[in-house]
Amino acid sequence: MTTPLTLDNIRRAPKALLHDHLDGGLRPSTVLEMANEIGHELPADDVDGLATFFRTAAHSGSLVRYLEPFAHTVAVMQTPEALHRVAFEAVQDLAADSVVYAEIRFAPELHIDNGLSLDAVVDAVLAGFADGEKAAAADGKTITVRCLVTAMRHAARSREIAELAIRFRDKGVVGFDIAGAEAGYPPTRHLDAFEYMRNNNGRFTIHAGEAFGLPSIHEAIAFCGADRLGHGVRIVDDIEALPEGGAKLGRVAGIVRDKRIPLELCPSSNVQTGAVASIAEHPFAELARLRFRVTVNTDNRLMSDTTMSQEMLRLVEAFGYGWSDLERFTINAMKSAFLPFNERLAIIDEIIKPRYAVLVG
C-alpha cells in the first residue's frame, strides 16, 4: 500500500537540496544567543518574536527588501566559532529533515568584518559541515554536505571568490555562485570570474531570472556559461501557451530545456520576493510538465520559515503530485549536483531509490 502523502511521511523521504543559503538558515534561538553575546541589537528579544520578524520582513514582494534582514544573521557570523556553529546546526537541521545531499552556499566576503581572512572563513564553515556530518552519522542519519562560495554581484570581488572556490575544491567546495540584487548588476559584470572557473574546470551556478527576468537568464547561459540557474523562475516568460493546450518555447527557454540546464526553484521564497504571486500560480508545474529539469529548494529556511519537506508538501497540495513525482524531482537534483558522477550515482541508487521504493509500496 502506498504511504499517504502527509508532512510526517514526506519528512521520511530522502531529499537532495541544491539551493540553500547558510546565512538564511540559522535557528532563531541561535541568532538571539549569538547577538546577545556580541551586543548586536535585534528587532525582537525573544525567539518567537524574532522568528516572526524574519518571516514577515522577508515576505516583502521585493528581492531588495527580502535581503534586508540578512544584516542581522551576517552580523553574528563574524568569528570562526560562530561560523562553525551555524554550519554544524545547518547540517543537523537538514539531516533531521531527511536531506541526504545538500549544497549550502554563502558569501565569504560578508564574514570578514572582524579581520578573518577569506580562507579562514571557508575553513570554519567546512569544519562545521564535516562535524555536522559526523554527528548525523552517529545518530544514524546519512547526509553529504558540500559548499558553494558566493560572490556578491554588487561588489568587485568575484574573481577573488572564484579563485577561493578553486583553492578549496578538494576540501569540500564544489562550486561558485553570484548572488544579491539582480537589477543593475547583470552577471556579465563578472565574466572574468566565470572564465576563471571554466579555465580551471570548475562548476558554477548563477542567480538569474528571480527578480530581473529573462535577460538575466540569457546572459547567464549565453555569455557566462552557467551550469545551473539559481531560481530561473522567469524562464516562463519565454513560454507561450497554445490554444490547443500545448506550449511554444522561445529561444532561451528552448536552449535551457534542450541542454538540461537545472532550475533551482524555491517556491516559498519566490512568493516572498514577488517573483510569483502564490504557490498555486508558480510555474513549477508547467515547467515540470514540459520536462525542464526542475528541482525543489528552500533558499532561506529562516526567512521563509520552511524545510524541504514543507516545500514538497506545498507542491503536493497545489499540483496533486505523488511519490513518483517527488522522487523524480529529487533525482533531478541529485543528477544536477556538483559532485563527481560516481558519487551522484551512488546516492541515487543506494539511498534515494531504495528509500522511495519503501514509501511507494
TrEMBL record:
InterPro entries: A_deaminase (IPR028893), A_deaminase_dom (IPR001365), Ado/ade_deaminase (IPR006330), Metal_Hydrolase (IPR032466). Substrate binds at residues 21, 23, 180. One of its GO terms (cellular component) is cytosol. Binds 1 zinc ion per subunit. Keywords: Hydrolase, Metal-binding, Nucleotide metabolism, Zinc. Its EC number is 3.5.4.4. It catalyses: adenosine + H2O + H(+) = inosine + NH4(+); 2'-deoxyadenosine + H2O + H(+) = 2'-deoxyinosine + NH4(+). Zn(2+) binds at residues 19, 21, 207, 299. The active site is at 210 (proton donor). The record marks 231 as: Important for catalytic activity. GO terms for molecular function: 2'-deoxyadenosine deaminase activity; adenosine deaminase activity; zinc ion binding. Pfam families: A_deaminase. GO terms for biological process: adenosine catabolic process; hypoxanthine salvage; inosine biosynthetic process; nucleotide metabolic process; purine ribonucleoside monophosphate biosynthetic process. Its cofactor is Zn(2+). It is an enzyme of class 3 (hydrolase). Residues 14-353 form the Adenosine deaminase domain. Belongs to the metallo-dependent hydrolases superfamily. Adenosine and AMP deaminases family. Adenosine deaminase subfamily. Catalyzes the hydrolytic deamination of adenosine and 2-deoxyadenosine. HAMAP family: A_deaminase. This is Adenosine deaminase.
